[in-house]
Specification:
6-stranded mixed beta sheet; 15 strands; 34% helix; 22% strand; alpha/beta; 11 helices; Peroxisomal Thiolase, Chain A, domain 1; single chain; globular
């Protein structure tokens, strides 16, 4: 049921049965290390290219999800997945071996919440019983597509972020499924918001306006205040973007301090790992939610969280044509009580 401007209340409150996460070597060295299911020390994962490595990483993450949830691939009705690469090749090639009906998505770094939104809507409407949401990103494949080849060794701006090498996935089932899990209660799909930022090395600032729009709309539509949630988690605004979003809401008389957290700021130890403004990429929100935050929900250390994945909807072509960077953000409310 749609409420307010753009929020959907999921009356049948589907739940997240299980999650899975996989990260690369740099992410494994970060402060959330113990929460990730799988990791690799080889950025190629035994493959001949970074793109093939990312596809394999996503496949391993999904196979681990099926194992953890005691689910056979043939029992999954649909899978929603996406990545950063042209024509979503990491996801598309991954699906060759799974045999699951597949919806390929592109929302840039917002793709995990986009896929989780659509998965929950399918289950809520009784179109499916088991739906997987998954996304991935890889530092090396993203760098050479969007910025410079790694061999170039170019110096990064202080506002730049590091694309996370990671994958995350979740399986959504009806609320009456026999195994317990946190419920998805509301989703707020985002609008494209563009403040004419053109600096590709300052993605956090480019995505902030979309987060502001989606979060303000979600609070207005639901009648909730930020302190209703134990945490309001953004995807990858990074260190700078996180500071900006807190300041913007402070001007509106809304205090996000102590409630807001950002996956891009959490995944790395910035003092030790030289990641500038933090992490980004489809795998950023996907892995941190599927690892750390899902564990907080399962253990009841947190009972109500709002996750907002953020995406910059530009391409290498649009940037070369002098276009600005449009942003989008999708929000999903997840609670331990329906």
């Amino acid at each position: 049921m749609k409420i307010g401007k753009q929020t959907i209340k999921l009356e049948n409150t589907p739940k997240i049965l299980q999650t899975s996460s996989m990260v690369g070597p740099k992410e494994k060295q970060g402060p959330l290390s113990i929460y990730f299911d799988l990791d690799t020390k080889d950025i190629f994962l035994g493959e001949k290219s970074f793109e093939k490595a990312e596809s394999k990483m996503l496949e391993l993450c999904i196979l681990n999800l099926l194992k953890k949830s005691s689910t056979k691939a043939e029992d999954v009705d649909y899978i929603f997945a996406g990545d950063l690469l042209n024509q979503c090749i990491s996801s598309g090639y991954c699906m060759r071996n799974l045999g699951i009906p597949f919806f390929g998505l592109y929302g840039a770094c917002s793709t995990f919440c986009e896929s989780l939104t659509l998965a929950s809507l399918f289950v809520n409407a009784n179109y499916a019983q088991k739906v997987v949401a998954a996304t991935s990103s890889h530092f090396c494949s993203a760098e050479r597509q969007f910025r410079m080849p790694l061999e170039h060794g170019n110096q990064k701006s202080p506002t730049a972020q590091c694309t996370v090498t990671a994958a995350g996935s979740a399986i959504v089932v009806p609320k009456d499924f026999s195994i317990s899990g946190p419920y998805i209660t509301y989703v707020t799909p985002g609008k494209v918001v563009d403040y004419n930022i053109t600096d590709m090395t300052n993605m956090g600032s480019a995505m902030v306006p979309a987060v502001y729009n989606t979060l303000a709309t979600h609070l207005q539509d639901t009648g909730r205040t930020p302190d209703y949630y134990d945490a309001i988690v953004t995807g990858d605004l990074g260190v700078l973007g996180s500071e900006i979003i807190v300041d913007l809401f402070k001007k509106d008389g809304i205090n996000l301090q102590g409630i807001h957290a950002d996956c891009g700021a959490l995944i790395y130890n910035h003092d030790m790992q030289d990641t500038h403004c933090g992490g980004s990429g489809c795998g950023c929100m996907a892995s941190v939610f599927s690892g750390y935050f899902f564990e907080q929900l399962k253990t009841k250390k947190m009972n109500k969280i709002l996750i907002i994945a953020t995406g910059a909807l530009m391409s290498t072509l649009s940037s070369q044509q002098g276009e600005s960077i449009p942003g989008i953000a999708h929000a999903v409310a997840i609670e331990n009580e329906a």
